[in-house]
Amino acid sequence: MMEVMTTILYIQKVREGKGLTITQTAKRAGLSYQGYRYIETGQRRPSVTTAKRLSEVLGIPWTEFFREDEATAAPDHLTARPSNPGTRKR
């Protein structure tokens, strides 16, 4: 079975894989600890400029910070509700 990894988890795993703490990553990218923490936890999206600085630190494409997570985007047919469900006849 293939593991689905959200953007947030992916960025965290990349950072940890490089042996960087949140503080080190933030400092190298010119961000405050809290500013980077908001980005890594998905509470905020970075500006393009900030995403590019983080991509240099983490070694990933800057566009990763703007990727839509397939795990959170349910197809329309799973979220659509019938307009008039009615009753089922036998």
Short summary of the structure?
The chain is 47% helix and 0% strand. The protein has 90 residues and is mainly alpha-helical.
What secondary-structure arrangement, pairings included, does this model have?
Layout: H1 7-17, H2 22-29, H3 33-40, H4 48-58, H5 76-79
Helix pairs in contact: 2-3, 2-4
What does this structure look like?
The protein is an all-alpha fold and 90 residues long. It has a domain at 7-68: lambda repressor-like DNA-binding domains (434 Repressor (Amino-terminal Domain), Orthogonal Bundle), CATH 1.10.260.40. Helices cover 47% and strands 0% of the residues. It has 5 helices and no strands. It has helices at 7-17, 22-29, 33-40, 48-58, 76-79. The protein starts with 6 loop residues before the first helix and ends in an 11-residue tail after the last helix. Mean pLDDT is 80; it is low at 71-83.
CATH topology of the domain at 7-68: 434 Repressor (Amino-terminal Domain)
- Class computed from helices, strands and strand pairing: mainly alpha
Secondary-structure element pattern, one letter each: HHHHH
Question: What Rg, in angstroms, do the CA atoms define?
Answer: 19 Å
**Which homologous superfamily in CATH is the superfamily of the domain at 7-68?**
lambda repressor-like DNA-binding domains
Total number of helical segments?
Answer: 5
Average pLDDT taken over every residue: 80
Number of strands: 0
Low-confidence stretches: 71-83
N- to C-terminal distance? 39 Å
CATH architecture assignment name of the domain at 7-68: Orthogonal Bundle
Give the percentage of residues in beta strands. under 5%
User: What is the top-level CATH class of the domain at 7-68?
Assistant: Mainly Alpha
Q: Specify the helix fraction band.
A: 40-55%
Q: Sum up the overall morphology in one term.
A: globular
